[in-house]
Write a structure and sequence with these properties.
It catalyses: N(1)-(5-phospho-beta-D-ribosyl)glycinamide + (6R)-10-formyltetrahydrofolate = N(2)-formyl-N(1)-(5-phospho-beta-D-ribosyl)glycinamide + (6S)-5,6,7,8-tetrahydrofolate + H(+). Pfam families: Formyl_trans_N (PF00551). By secondary structure, the protein is of the alpha/beta class. It has a single domain, classed as 3-Layer(aba) Sandwich (Rossmann fold), CATH 3.40.50.170. The two termini are about 25 Å apart. The longest helix is centred in the last third of the chain and has 24 residues. The chain is about 35% helix and about 25% strand. Strand 1, helix 1 and strand 2 form a beta-alpha-beta unit. The protein binds 5-O-phosphono-beta-D-ribofuranosylamine. 5-O-phosphono-beta-D-ribofuranosylamine (GRF) binds next to helix 1, strand 5 and helix 6.
């Protein structure tokens, strides 16, 4: 399984996936980590593990389409089976999403379909929900709306702040994202008609 990871920031999910691959040695390899921000700390995590990195700064492009086209030109030579968005903070054009549809996944810090978009922890706290979490989903043109593959759920505690809740959600992200990558590496996931399926030929 050839993997390309897209990041914009700290890359703790990237780290969790790198750690999983290093310890469990699945049939999976991160060929490239691509960031739209030159200062993303995740680039250092990748370089420290001898993973190839590239930066395509979106500020150097005058349209979303031209930025996305530049990314496709960098990504496609790696012939990725799976594109992992791990804190990649740019909205992707329909053309880009369609190019990789069925082989691109994202992690969103909420129990989708609740709380699409930004500030999910703040909104969950304001609503007083009992549980919050993170969802790994296929990426489709409509933001945070593709088929959900797996979710990690955490309780919301009485004294939670946005920060404490975010930390708890982050910890479950680091468990659920590598687990989904494992399912891909085992060839157990498929995508048809905008639905995610767990296939198990052993059953
Ligand atoms: C995570 O909260 C993820 O849900 C969201 O972006 C954040 C990335 O964090 N999509 P990190 O860069 O992996 O630490």
């Amino acid at each position: 399984l050839s993997i390309v990871v897209l990041i914009s920031g700290g890359g703790t999910n990237l780290q969790a996936i790198m750690d999983y691959i290093a310890t469990e040695k699945p049939d999976a390899n991160i060929e490239l980590v691509l960031s739209n921000r030159p200062d993303a700390y995740g680039l250092q995590r990748a370089a420290g593990a001898s993973i190839k990195t590239e930066v395509i700064d979106h500020k150097a492009f005058d349209s979303r389409e031209s930025f996305d086209q530049a990314m496709i030109e960098v990504i496609d030579p790696y012939q990725p089976d799976l594109i992992i968005l791990a804190g990649f903070m740019r909205i992707l054009s329909h053309g880009f999403v369609e190019h990789y549809e069925g082989r691109m996944i994202n992690i969103h810090p909420a129990l989708l379909p609740a709380y699409k978009g930004l500030h999910t922890h703040k909104r969950a706290l304001a609503d007083g929900v009992s549980h919050h979490g993170a969802s790994v989903h296929y990426v489709t043109p409509e933001l945070d709306s593709g088929a959900v593959i797996a979710q990690g759920r955490v309780p919301v505690l009485k004294d939670d702040t946005e920060e404490s809740l975010e930390q708890r959600v982050h910890r479950i992200e680091h468990i659920v994202y590598p687990e989904v990558v494992k399912w891909f590496a085992e060839g157990r996931l498929s995508y048809r008609d905008n639905q995610a399926y767990m296939d198990d030929t052993l059953l």
